[in-house]
Amino acid sequence: MIGRLNHIAIAVPDLEAATKTYASTLGAKVNPPQDEPDHGVTVVFVELPNTKVELLYPLGENSPIAGFLEKNPAGGIHHICYEVDDIIEARDKLKAEGARVLGNGEPKIGAHGNPVLFLHPKDFNGALVELEQA
Amino acid sequence: MIGRLNHIAIAVPDLEAATKTYASTLGAKVNPPQDEPDHGVTVVFVELPNTKVELLYPLGENSPIAGFLEKNPAGGIHHICYEVDDIIEARDKLKAEGARVLGNGEPKIGAHGNPVLFLHPKDFNGALVELEQA
User: Fold this and answer.
1) Shortest CA distance to A12 belongs to which of A79, A75, A67?
2) What is the pLDDT of residue A55?
3) How far, in Å, CA of A129 to CA of A123, rounded?
4) Is the terminal CB of chain A with fewer CB neighbours within 10 Å at N or C?
């Protein structure tokens, strides 16, 4: 069912410093920051030849990553995103197998303009998993 | 400098259950478990079209992931691995920029038979980063 790894997301406490680490220290191609008010984050996309790293920084109040950064002040790997062909079909299969879908279970439009869903980390080895229809 | 994302590693408390989650629930291609006594882990490779997920389970005493699983009993994303062309050149550049290389600073032979190094999470937004010459 799952296809490509779409991205890995890393929550960072200092977006400018993190951008510099990836652009200069690690020498990767880094894009300008992009505000995603619907998701409560500012995102910097790091382009690797086969996938992306997303550096996430809180935007506005009630950012979904604020709590994560409180618990992990230095930052940390926040989630991994796998692509699926049909997000509704994927969701229904996962629910039938007992996996928990976060939120109200309806896909939202993600940072790339595609429908996304998040799955409960407890059902996936402690890793927060995002599914993106792509 | 960094190239492809070689893999994401997820430490898991129950390798059989985690394998089933990836093979059956997520429908990915999963390989048989592989003991890596030099690294203190048993690894299951999950093949995605563009990269790999490695499920890590402790092997023997003093496994480097035992402490992680104590702190994260449900498991969790343990590290990310980026490919580099020349690991010694990469190491020297990173050290010159102030990044800390773990262990004695000399590459070890990793699970894929290539030289690898680990970088200090504090210097990379809380994410443990492995570099693999590939």
Assistant:
1) A75
2) 98
3) 9
4) N
Structural domain containing residue B106: 5-133
Closest CA to A76 of B122, B35, B106: B122
Domain count for chain B, please give it. 1
Q: Do B49 and A122 touch (CB under 8 A)?
A: no
Nearest to A80 among B8, B25, B121 (CB): B8
Query: Can you tell me the distance from the alpha carbon of A45 to that of A24, in angstroms, rounded to the nearest whole number?
Result: 14
Mean pLDDT for A38-46 is: 94
- Which of A5-9, A59-63, B112-116 has the highest mean predicted lDDT (pLDDT)? A5-9
Summarize pLDDT for A105-121 with one digit per residue, the tens.
999 998 788 999 999 99
Distance between CA atoms of residues A61 and B53, nearest Å: 34
- Of the residues B54, B83, B130, B132, which is catalytic? B130
Whole-angstrom distance, CA of residue A20 vs CA of residue A25: 7
**Minimal C-alpha gap between A38 and chain B (Å):** 24
Instruction: Indicate if the pLDDT at residue A61 is higher than 90.
Output: no
Q: Is A83 a catalytic residue?
A: no
Kindly report the CATH number assigned to the domain that includes residue A14.
3.10.180.10
Residue A51 with chain B: CB contacts under 8 Å: 4-5, 50-51
CB contact under 8 A, A97 and B2: no
B25 touches chain A (CB under 8 A): yes
DSSP strand E in B85-123: where?
A: 108-109, 115-119
pLDDT at B111 over 80: no
